[in-house]
Design goal:
GO molecular function: protein phosphatase regulator activity
Largest sheet: 4 strands, antiparallel
Radius of gyration: 29 Å
Function: The B regulatory subunit may modulate substrate selectivity and catalytic activity, and may also direct the localization of the catalytic enzyme to a particular subcellular compartment.
Organism: Theobroma cacao (Cacao)
Protein name: Serine/threonine-protein phosphatase 2A 55 kDa regulatory subunit B
Number of helices: 4
GO cellular component, one term: protein phosphatase type 2A complex
Distance between the termini: 17 Å
Structural class: mainly beta
Helix content: under 10%
Number of strands: 30
Shape: globular
Strand order of the largest sheet: 3-4-5-6
Amino acid sequence: MNNGGAEAAIAPVGGSQPLEWKFSQVFGERTAGEEVQEVDIISAIEFDRSGDHLATGDRGGRVVLFERTDTRDHVGHQRDLERMDYPINRHPEFRYKTEFQSHEPEFDYLKSLEIEEKINKIRWCQSANGALFLLSTNDKTIKFWKVQEKKVKKVCDMNMDSTKAMGNGPIVGSNISTSSKQYIANGGCTSNEFSFPTGGFSSLHLPVVVTSHETNLMARCRRIYAHAHDYHINSISNNSDGETFISADDLRINLWNLEISNQSFNIVDVKPANMEDLTEVITSAEFHPTHCNMLAYSSSKGSIRLIDMRQSALCDTHSKLFEEQEAPGSRSFFTEIIASISDIKFAKDGRHILSRDYMTLKLWDINMDSGPVATFQVHEYLRPKLCDLYENDSIFDKFECCLSGDGLRLATGSYSNLFRVFGCSEGSTEATTLEASKNPMSKRSR
């Protein structure tokens, strides 16, 4: 979505009970006319695979985690749930869990370039032993975080138990003295200049640390993956093997092992020997949800390439190429510009890929490379205004896309606080426009 505000909109979903939509680019209640600090604006958001946790990143380099709470009080016995032949109708509720500072502003002295702390992407990793793991990245540096509950250690007393101290016998209340210096192995010595204070141990103020039953969420950075990209990172994606992930910039895709931060493998490189021969750049990349050897990446020329990493170490050839053929006589000055794909997503079934270009959403079947199986017009009313959009550079704006968990709906953003929802099941004609505006009852359908 583009050009957002912090207001609410209500719109029916699927013709059922009206659902309140609240759109906000920052956290916390804001009074009318209150200025929003740029560092507080949300720049990335991601659900984990279970849908029970939500992570957001902002322009200030912070990551905030939320936990779903509406399911805790409604979980019944498995047998009771199996007998239910209707879905439970309740709205999800997420509550604040913790937050931490992921990135700080940096400066590249070699290129005299300031690297802002803004979080561009967040990706959840597989959880283990009650701990949450996630990747976060800004333009240049990726970090691997572990979030886990730790028992709180407290200082309960500043003196040792005097009775225990007295049990030490003659040391208490006496000084250590020797008639001659005793030399030790490392060259030092013990002498009468080292003595305990009068009163023994009980007069020393020593902290006694105990582990309480209270727990606190702690975020720890386990790995930092840096200095591997010459250009801004536009994508990170976890592999289904739980051990590796990829990061992509305009010209290269690197493969990382989560446990090795000082080495990566360059698996895709589209940089030509002469940069004047550059015709396209990488815009998005993502691993297949189940096949750990497959990934897809999109380009600014409107193509999607499916890669099989088993073919070669450097994936300079693709196993499949997905492109839409131009209709005869339809080419114009803006054709290549609006064909540039800004985002791709695999469906959970791994069979389909969703792509977003400037004007449309396209759904592709990986077994059919002749063309998309469905095309959805996002804002066709802007086509006559492409010249104006080119003049003010809006035609180069990038939009993201997503699929619902059940794979039956697609969503993407537009201008003027609008986003579009389409049904993608067979025979579906659903096409809804939702708006976040100052009128909470407003709804537009196109």
